[in-house]
Amino acid sequence: MLRRLYLSPVGYIISLVMNVVGIFTRPFMVYGYYCRPDKRFLRYTRISSSVKVLDANQFRVGDHCWIGHYSIIDASGGVTLGEGVQFGFLSAIFSHSSHASIRLLGKRYIDMPTEQRLGLERAPVKVGDYCFIGTGSILLPGTVLGKGCVVAVGSVVRGEFPDHSVIAGNPARRVGDTRKHDTPYINEPGIDETYFDPERLAELRRLQQQDNIESQTS
């Protein structure tokens, strides 16, 4: 029904109205988000009013997340964000690709039901707890990030990356470890109550002690 409406002469009016509204609407951060798959309200998650979520029924997100202005989440193939994930402005997640489908189907593409489109690729995207995705980055179908990762500004990411990876480039690759950046702060007051991964914090302290012993004996 909606497709017919958009393709009819009325569709031009709808498009005009939507574009005019867009001109006069400034984005703002919306506090709280209802996660449809889990049927729960996330009190501390903040998502910009300008963020576009496609197929929200397949968008699973943890609490304490933050998604900046003008980002897009294509959840048609399934998207899962862990707790505390942050996305910079103008970022994108794509869980489907139709580049082959439009060539294979040509002009019939628009008339074909989505599930019947030849060559359509779908693969879920998963982002672990407390990852930080830099402004302008793109996560492609099938991408899996472990917890505590950082994606550099403007990266184009596809593939699987382990916990605490620093990821950069186009195509993106692993260029470092976020634990290196955390180590100088692991003995700060109150860090035991706030650090997102207590087991990893204990590991970092053990490694630091070993390094201190080795430096004293060398």
UniProtKB/TrEMBL annotation:
Coiled-coil boundaries: none
Record key words, sorted: Membrane, Transferase, Transmembrane, Transmembrane helix
One of the record's GO molecular function terms: O-acyltransferase activity
Pfam families: Hexapep (PF00132), Hexapep_2 (PF14602)
InterPro entries: Hexapep, Hexapeptide_acetyltransf, Trimer_LpxA-like_sf
Top-level taxon in the UniProt lineage: Bacteria
Residue ranges of the TM segments: 12-34
This protein's GO CC annotations: cytosol
CDD domains: LbH_MAT_like
PANTHER family assigned: ACETYLTRANSFERASE C18B11.09C-RELATED, SIALIC ACID SYNTHASE-RELATED
Family in the record: Belongs to the transferase hexapeptide repeat family.
Name of the protein in question: Transferase
